[in-house]
Amino acid sequence: MELFFPASRQAIRQVTSLFEFVWPTAAALWNLRWQVQGFIAEVPHASVDQLKQRFLFGSKIDNVDLRRTVTDYTWDDQTAIFGSFVLTNAFAIYEQWADDILHSLGERAGSGKKLQFPDRVVTTMAGLLASESSTLKSAYYPIYSTDRKYSLPHLQNFMLCYRYFKELRNAQVHAGGVADQKAVDAYTAFQPVSGKAQLGRKGDLAFDPVTLGQKVSLNLRGVVGFTDVLIKIIATIDAELCHAEKAEAVFEKALRAPVAGRCSPQIRGSAMHRFRRGVRLPGSHLRRTPERCMTSCSPTA
Questions:
Q1: What is the pTM of this model?
Q2: Which residues contact 67 (CB under 8 A, 6 or more apart)?
Q3: Average pLDDT over residues 192-202
Q4: Alpha helices in the chain (DSSP H)
Q5: Which of 185, 195, 216, 295 is most buried, by CB atoms within 10 Å?
Q6: b or e along 39-66 (b: 16 or more beta carbons within 10 Å of the residue's beta carbon)?
Q7: Following DSSP, what letter does each residue of 254-297 receive, concatenated?
Q8: pLDDT of 300 higher than 60
C-alpha cells in the first residue's frame, strides 16, 4: 500500500502483525481441538493432569482444563472469542492512528474522536483541506488516490460500518455483551448501506442484527471483513489529507531526516533515493516536491 503519513504506515504494520498472530493461533487451536477430542474418545477417563501432560508438556502453560476447552466450547464459540480479540485490538490501533495523524496536522493531542463518527470525519477533513498544498496535491495525491484500498465514494458507509462494530465492541467491554440503544441505532443506520455494492466489496460483509437487551454476536469472518473496511478508511483519509497545507510540515520532517547536513547537489540525489525507499514514497514525483524541503537543512559543520 502507498501511504503518506507515518502514522498510517505504522497502523497498517500493526494490523498485519495482529493477523500474523491470530491466524496461526486459530489454526493451532483447531488442531488442538480434534487431537484432544480424539484422545478423550480413546481414553474417556483421562484426567486434567494427564491431558496437560500429553498436550502441554514443556509449554509452561499450566492453568487450563483441556477437556472443558473442547467440550464446553464449540468452534463457533471460540472463533467468536478470536473475533472479539481482533476487534478490540483493531479499534485500539485505529484510535491511536486517528490521534496521531490529526496531531501531526496540528490538531490538539487526543483529538482522534473526530475521525470516529461519520459527520465529524467530513467536517474534520473539510477543515484541514480548507488550505491545500498545490505542490503535494500534484505530486502525490494522484498516486495515493489510486491505491486499491482508497475508496472515497464509500467513506460515509465505511464510517457507519465502523460505528456498528464499535458499538458491538462497547457492548462486550462495558455491558456484558448486551446491546443498548446505541448499538441498536448503529445497526439501524448501517443495515441499509451494508451490501457489497455500498461497501465496494466483492462479497457481502457478515454481520448479525442487534436487538435491544439481547446479547450481541460476533463471528471471525465478519470481523475480518470489517478490518478490511478499517484499512480502507485509513487509506482513504490518508490520501485525502496528504495534500492539506499542514501536511507539508509532515513531509518536511520526514525529508529532513535522511538529508540533514547532506544537502550538497552532489549527494542530494542519492539521499532522496534512500529517503524514498525508506518511507515508500513514489520516486517519479520527488522532483515536484517543495524545493525548500530539499535545501533548507544546514550543511555539516
A1: 0.85
A2: 36, 40, 46, 48, 51
A3: 96
A4: 6-42, 48-55, 66-71, 75-104, 118-128, 134-139, 141-144, 155-174, 181-190, 220-241, 247-259, 265-279, 291-295
A5: 216
A6: bbeeeeebeeeebbeebeeeeeeeeeeb
A7: HHHHHHTB---HHHHHHHHHHHHHHHT--GGGGGGS-HHHHH-S
A8: no
147-170, pLDDT tens digit by residue? 999 999 999 999 999 999 999 999
φ and ψ at 299, to 5 degrees? -70, 160
**pLDDT category of residue 93 using cuts at 50, 70 and 90:** very high
**Phi and psi, residue 132, nearest 5°:** -105, 160
Cell of 252: 518536511
Cell 478508511 sits on residue: 233
If you search the block for the grid coordinates 443506520, which residue do you land on? 189
Q: Could you tell me the end-to-end alpha-carbon distance of the chain, in angstroms, rounded to an integer?
A: 38
CA dihedral (98, 104, 106, 110) positive or negative: positive
